[in-house]
């Protein structure tokens, strides 16, 4: 995956924060695909809400550029905005999102599969879908950031504006729910089950 900071030069970020329209367009073009992918995964595949939330996230990025202090990477900062947009949206809706495992994870390998192997892989991911739908939004968000994006505990805590101890607890309870629900099922991709602890 290409980092947004690689697509948006530092000079362009600074010009955009100062109101340069051409630089702002450059920033939007640079992060457009990354924002869409991030929202899609955090929404757990609920595509019907994606367009509106993408516009909201892009607008927040653009109007908040003056507050970007360059203390974290631009990618991390943009991801944090996406998280807040999704959490606010779900809280307003007061409902759990529909989970589309085909959109949530990279299934190109499964798509290339044939016969029973492909069916079993899809069934395993559907099982994951049902489990994730039962998790509270903060546990689910932490789980996706860890298992899909590979963020560290420290990064997740910063992105979710929470203590590292809280982040560890969220991952612990999410992992516990998965293991309890899966039991001896070994068909679920190992990367969806973060190991105990972690950095």
SSE diagram, text form:
Layout: H1 4-7, H2 10-17, H3 21-42, H4 50-64, H5 74-93, H6 101-104, H7 108-111, H8 115-133, H9 137-147, H10 153-159, H11 164-182
Helix pairs in contact: 2-3, 3-4, 3-5, 4-5, 8-11, 9-11, 10-11
- The name CATH uses for the topology of the largest domain is Arc Repressor Mutant, subunit A
Number of domains: 2
Quote the beta fraction.
under 5%
Please state the structural category. mainly alpha
Major beta-sheet overview? none
Number of strands: 0
CATH level-two architecture of the largest domain:
Orthogonal Bundle
Mean pLDDT: 76
- Given as residue ranges, the uncertain stretches (5+ residues, pLDDT < 50) are 1-5, 96-113
First-to-last CA distance: 21 Å
Name the CATH homologous superfamily of the largest domain.
Winged helix-like DNA-binding domain superfamily/Winged helix DNA-binding domain
> For the record, what CATH class of the largest domain applies?
Mainly Alpha
Please state the overall shape, judged from the principal axes of the Cα atoms. Answer: elongated
User: Helix-strand pattern, N to C?
Assistant: HHHHHHHHHHH
The portion of residues assigned to helices is 55-70%
Helix count, per DSSP?
11
Radius of gyration (CA) equals: 18 Å
Protein described:
The protein is an all-alpha fold and 199 residues long. The chain folds into two domains: 4-93, Rna Polymerase Sigma Factor, Chain: A, CATH 1.10.1740; 101-192, Orthogonal Bundle (Arc Repressor Mutant, subunit A). 67% of the residues lie in helices and 0% in strands. It contains eleven helices and no strands. Helix 4 crosses helix 5 (74-93). The protein is elongated. The two termini are 21 Å apart. Mean pLDDT is 76; it is low at 1-5 and 96-113.
């Amino acid at each position: 995956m290409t980092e947004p900071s690689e697509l948006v030069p530092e000079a362009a970020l600074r010009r955009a924060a100062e109101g340069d329209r051409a630089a702002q367009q450059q920033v939007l073009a640079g992060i457009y695909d990354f924002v869409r992918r991030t929202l899609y995964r955090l929404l757990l595949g609920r595509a019907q809400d994606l367009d509106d939330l993408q516009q909201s996230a892009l607008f927040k990025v653009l109007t908040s550029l003056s507050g970007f202090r360059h203390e974290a990477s631009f990618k991390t900062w943009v991801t944090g905005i996406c998280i807040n947009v999704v959490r606010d949206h779900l809280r307003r809706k007061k409902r759990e999102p529909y989970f589309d495992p085909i959109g949530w994870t990279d299934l190109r390998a499964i798509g290339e599969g044939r016969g029973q192997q492909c069916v079993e892989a899809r069934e395993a991911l559907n099982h994951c879908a049902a489990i994730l739908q039962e998790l509270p939004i903060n546990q689910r968000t932490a789980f996706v950031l860890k298992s899909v994006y590979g963020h560290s505990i420290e990064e997740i805590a910063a992105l979710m504006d929470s203590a590292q101890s809280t982040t560890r607890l969220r991952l612990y309870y999410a992992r516990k729910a998965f293991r309890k629900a899966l039991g001896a099922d070994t068909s679920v991709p190992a990367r969806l089950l973060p190991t105990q602890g972690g950095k």
